[in-house]
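In line with agreed milestones, the collection of sequences with tokenised folds has grown. One record among many is set out beneath this paragraph:
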Amino acid sequence: MAAVSAPRSSKTESYIDNKRKEDIRHANIKAACAVADAIRTSLGPKGMDKMISTASGEVIITNDGATIVNKMEVLQPAAKMLVELSKSQDAAAGDGTTTVVAIAGSLLKQCLTLLSSGIHPTVISDSLHKASIKAVDVLTAMAVPLELTDRDSLIKSASTSLNSKVVSQYSSLLAPLAVDAVLSVVDPAKPDLVDLRDIKIVKKLGGTVDDTEMVRGLVFDKKVSHAAGGPTRVENAKIAVIQFQISPPKTDIEQSIVVSDYAQMDRILKEERNYILGMIKKIKATGCNVLLIQKSILRDAVTDLSLHYLAKAKILVIKDVERDEIEFITKTLNCLPIANIEHFKEEKLGYADLVEEVSLGDGKIVKITGIKDMGRTTTVLVRGSNHLVLDEAERSLHDALCVVRCLVSKRFLIAGGGAPEIELSRQLGAWSKVLHGMEGYCVKSFAEALEVIPYTLAENAGLNPITIVTELRNRHAQGEINTGINVRKGQITNILEENVVQPLLVSTSAMTLATECVRMLLKIDDIVTVR
């Protein structure tokens, strides 16, 4: 029987236009690369700073990648993903925000070359995923374990983070301060967790960054309310944190009371006086001599009359304490907030050796020190000659605190100065030769992309990037895995010996997050706008 020929399908013959999809992908990658190139120049100790002028006329000078992209008004949706990428690195590790954007930009440039060679985006995406897993393994193998008792190593990694900042000349002061602050809030019951909300940073204009100090206790950036001549210094303080108002009560609904008679008016004033006096007598009865009063929205937290009586009772008053600070204050003082005068009991008070008002610069602050049974919190008082330096010092200190937090949660150190990236590039390049087909080709591109970090470090330091990177490759091929760029000396040295170190978590999270972001961008083939 003769075989019946199957009818030819016209579907296989039809031409599908993929031009639009390619154009969208191209535009996305170009937009993201533009953001990466703008930030790349601020990488490393010799990186440039950016001056950002906001719509409200505020000027910010910073070197921090996350701050720069945050303040940029990026409209292109794909470029916004790089902004989110920098934010997630800031949340995960706190440092390496510029590095992660630079790596993502370099990977995207390599992807453009691969796409134009006709490799399918899914193949590139899967290869990148494999390469990033391998990269994390290589980094972990390079890392040096660390103990929290080794304070010097912690300080080295904190000062490496500070060296690329505007306030780098103060790293010898800020690095030990960051280490001590984090170690003082580590809870022995949960040794791997550090909550940075337990470290409060108080900024005070005046002085220089040199005057920055860590205070074992509380600092309020406000003066004592001594309108009626109350005390400004109290020893053996019994401190109450109150959330009610020491002022005459108001009606719950908006209404006005008309008083037509003098006697009635006298009676109202007398009642108000007695009401306030009654409250203050209850407060005084517990032996309390320092009051922290929460800011009130509905009515005055304290009136002149109540301040007068409090001064007579020799009680020090700090008013307008912000609502969101209450939790930190009660945790530090180891006391309970009091919401009603009826609940004002002695067991809810906190105890401290000294509460005093101190003059600083052109203003005053209140310090509470020598707290009894103090909670695991600490306060850092940051000083600066102007607002730009003050804000940048706070951001730099936050990065240093994050670096130490990374080391507490994952106790491994790794060399800096472009050493891990070159080593990764070398090992992934060797691994790509073992792989077959397109996969090997994609992994080789991934390896090349990682050279952007040492290249940029050399470029920003005014060195010849090509010579430096070639020499680095050569040294790493000879087995010197900790060789990196010493930007200060302008040559290649063993970076571990130069004390340029960073937490392993910063490098691994930068690799995984950058790869994730690039894979997501590759998979987008159309942008649908909904009006």
